Glutamyl-tRNA(Gln) amidotransferase subunit A, chloroplastic/mitochondrial (Canavalia gladiata), 971 residues
Amino acid sequence: MAVTAVHQFAQCITCHVWSPDQSMVALCPNNNEVHIYRLVEDKWEKVYVLQKHDQVISGIDWSARSNRIVTASHDRNSYVWNLEGSEWVPTLVILRLNRAALCVQWSPKENKFAVGSGAKTVCICYYEQENNWWVSKLIRKRHDSSVTSVSWHPNNILLATTSTDGKCRVFSTFIKGVDAKDANKGTSSDWKFGELIVQLDLSSSWTFGVKWSPSGNTLAYVGHNSMIYFVDDVGPSPLAQNVVFRDLPLRDVLFVSEKTVIGVGFDCNPMVFAADERGIWSFVRYLGERKAVSSGSRYGSQFSEAFGKFYGQSKHGVTNDTIETSRTRGAVHENCINCIMPLGDRGTSIRRFSTSGLDGRIVLWNLENEQDLLGLVPLDAPKSHDSQLFFAILKFPSSSIWILFGYCIICTLYTDCAWKMKMLSTLQTPRSLSRLSFIPSNVFTSHTFASQTFISRASLTDQSVTTIVAPPQSQILSIRHSLLSRHVTAADLARSYLTRLRLSEPQLRSFLHLPDDDAVLAQARHLDAKISAGEELGPLAGVLVAVKDNICTADMPSTAGSRILEGYRPPFDATAVKRVKELGGIVVGKTNLDEFGMGSTTEASAFQVTANPWDVSRVPGGSSGGSAAAVSARQCVVSLGSDTGGSVRQPASFCGVVGLKPTYGRVSRFGLMAYASSLDAIGCFGSSVADTGILLHSIAGHDRFDATSSKQDVSNFLSHFVPVSSLESKPLKGLRVGLIRETIDNGVDAGVISAIRAAALHFEELGCSVNEVSLPSFSLGLPAYYILAVSESSSNLSRYDGIRYGNQVHADELDSLYGGSRAKGFGSEVKMRILMGTYALSAGYYDAYYKRAQQVRTIIRNSFKEALNQNDILISPAAPSAAYKIGEKKNDPLAMYAGDIMTVNVNLAGLPALVLPCGFVEGGPAGLPVGLQLIGAAFDEEQLLRVGHIFEQTLENCRFVPPIVADDIVY
C-alpha cells in the first residue's frame, strides 16, 4: 500500500479521468477547458486542450471501449468528443436544462450516458442512429434539489443518484430500442423509464459520490454530515448501514473490491472502509500517512468531531489558537480530494487508483496487498467495538429509520461514556467568527512579548521635539534591507508580528480568519532558505499582508462578512492575492468588513464589529474597516481592501493610515466578490505612502481574467520614495492644487475643515499654488451613486441562492429554498440595498432612476475632467468627520450614507485617489486622525504617490501611531 506518484498539473482540478489504456489523463483545471496529458519518457506533456464550453466543466468521463469523451458544464450543455485523426471533434448534446449540469457518466455498455443537474433533473442521453444525433430523455420531478452524482448499475439499466436534498435514489433508465429486453420475468428491463425503484432517506444533509459495487449488490454513498452509507438488497425493502467517522466529510467513494471501499474528501487523506464476514461495515484506517490528533469545537456534534474540525482545524477552516500546530495532517494532498478513479482492469478487484483535488494534484495509489490493508489497526479510531456501535442496520419503513438511528446514537453515548467524555473534553472554542475574551490593555506596556525584543516609541501625546522619532520611509524597504543584510530573519520578523497580532486582536477584532501560526512561519522560513541560497527575492519578501474577506483566497475562507457564505473556501486566489504571493508576500489573515462591502462602519458584518485602534469605542470606518485597523495597529505591514464608494479611503482617514483607490481597471477585479461591478476597485493600505505605493505596484497591471482590466503600462513608483533629506526646499514648486469648495461647507465638522486648510497651507509651503475650485455636480454624486450601486448589487447578489455555494435552507419547493436561504443568509443592510436596487431597475422606474443616475454619472465625470485640466491634483477631506462611536449611526442609515459624500464621486468618475493622515481633532485618549484626500487624473497614480510622499515626509509634529501600539518591531 503506497503512493506511487504525485503529479502537480494545475492550481485546482475539478475532475479527472483516464484513457482506456491509461496512457493519457484528461482533467479540468476549474475552468471551461479539458486538458489531456500523455506520459512521455516519465514526463506528462499536454497534448490536447478541449475548448467548447462557455462555463466551468463540472463532469467528464472517458469510455473504455469506444474511446469517446463526454463533458458536462455549468453552461447547461454536454459534448461528446470523438478522436478523428489527431483532433478531438465535439458533438453538442442538447440537454434541455435551465440549470447547470453537475455530473456525467457513461453507462457500462457505453450506449448511454447520464447527466445530473442543478435543475433537479437527470438527463439520459443516447445516440439515435436514424437522425445521426444524440437525444436526451429526462427524469423529471423526482428530485427535490440539485443532483450531485450519478452511478450506473452493471446491468446498464439501473441508475443511482444523490442530491442536495439528502436522499439517494435508484431509477430505471430502460429505453426501448436502446436496451435489450430480458426474456426473464421480474428483471430490471420490466421497469419503465424513470420509474423510481427505491428512495433512501438516510441523510439529513447533502449527499455525494454514489457508487455500485462490482457485482451491483451493494450501493455506497456519502453525506455531508461525515457519514458513509452502505445499502444491500436495493429494492422495495433495502438493508442499509451507516458508519459515522470522526473526520471531515467525504466527497467520493470507490469500491476496490466487493467488501472494501476507499472514501476521499475534505480531509485530504483517503479512508478505508470494509465489511466483515457478517457483512457489517466499519472504518478500517487512513490510507495515507499517520494523521494528527483530531481537534473539535463547541460546534461539534455529540457523535462526530467532524463539524468541530470544520470550525476549529486551522489548515482546513478557520483558525483555532489551541490546536497543536507542531503535528502535520500527514496527507499527500493539501486540499479537498474531490475525485477518485480506478486504474487498470475494472474487474472485481482494483489494486491501482488515482485521486485529484483542489490542490491541483493527481496522486497515483497502489494497494499492494489487500489482506495487509485490512489487517492494519485503525490509527485514530476507537477500538473495534466502538466503530461498530456507530452504525445502524435499517430495514424498516422510512418513518422508523430516524427513531432507530437516534436510539443507536443514545446507546453509543451511554455504553461508551468514558471514551465519549474524553472526546468531548477536546472541544475548543473557534478562533474566528466569535469575540475572544478581553485581554487587559496593560499587556501592551511590556517591552518583551514572548521573548521577542522591541524598542519603545514615544507616546503619541508627547509631541516634544526631543522625543519625536521620524517615521521610517518604508517598512517594506526596511524589511527588505534587514533580510538581505541578515540583521533579522523572516521567521523572527513574522513571529514578532504574530505576537503583536495575537495580543491586540481581542480588543480590535480586525480579522475574521487567521491561518495557523506554523503555516505563516513555514512561508517565512522558506524565504530564509532562499536568502541563504542566494536566490533573488520579490519586492514583498517577508512582508505580512492582510486581505479583506471579500477577496478570494484558496487557503482561507472568504465569506464577504456574510452568513450566506459562512465557511466558503474559493478554489482559487484572486489575481491581486496571487501576485502578492508570487512576489514573496505572506498573507497573514482575512479582515473584517461590512457584509459584501455595504456599510461604512463594519457594524454590518455578520460576525463581529471591529474597533478603531485610536479609540476602541469608535468605529474604524468601512467597509474595509478590518484592513485599515490591522495596518493602523501594526498587526500587519500592508493590507488589501476594496473601494466601491470610499471603502478604502474613509477607513484610512478614521484609522490614521494611508489608503489608495486606484483608477478603475488599474488592478484586476478577478476574485473580488462583486458589489457594484462598474464601481468596485481593489485598493491598498499602508502606514506610509511608500508602502502603499509598493503594494499597488505589485498588484497592478493587465489580467486576462478581468475584461475591465486596463493594458495601460504601470509606472515605476519606487523612484519617487526618496528620503526627506534629499528634497529641495520647494519640492512641489509649480504644482497646481485645487481645493474642492463643496467639501468644506457647513456639513463638515469644524475640526476637519481646520485640518484640511492647514494641509493646504502646507502645500503652499512646499511650492504649490492652491486655489479653490467648484464642482457644481458634486452634490449629485451621493444619490446617483446609491441608485447605481444598489441596482448593480441587486443583480450581482442574485447568484447567492443556496444552490451553487453558500448556506442552504432546506425547503420542499425551489422558490422556498431560494427565498429561505437568502432571507437567513443576508443581513438587514444587504436586504435593504437589494430591495432598493430591484425597485430602481423595475419597469416603471428604470428611466426615472437608473437611467437618470447614469446621465448624472457622465456629468460628474466631465466635471472632474474639466477641473483636472486646470489643476494637477484636487484635494478634499476624506470624510466629513473623524471616527464616531460604535452604534452612533447604526439606527440612522441616512446619516451614515451622507458620510460617503466626499468619496463616491471619485468612484463614479473612475479616478484614482490617495488618502493620508494630515492632522488631528479632539476625541479619544490621544486625539482622532483626519484624512486628506488627493484626487488625480486617470492612471496618474504616480503623481499622487509622489505628492503624497513629499507631503507626508515634510509634515512636522504629527506621528500617526495609535496608543494601542506601545512598541515597534526591530528590523
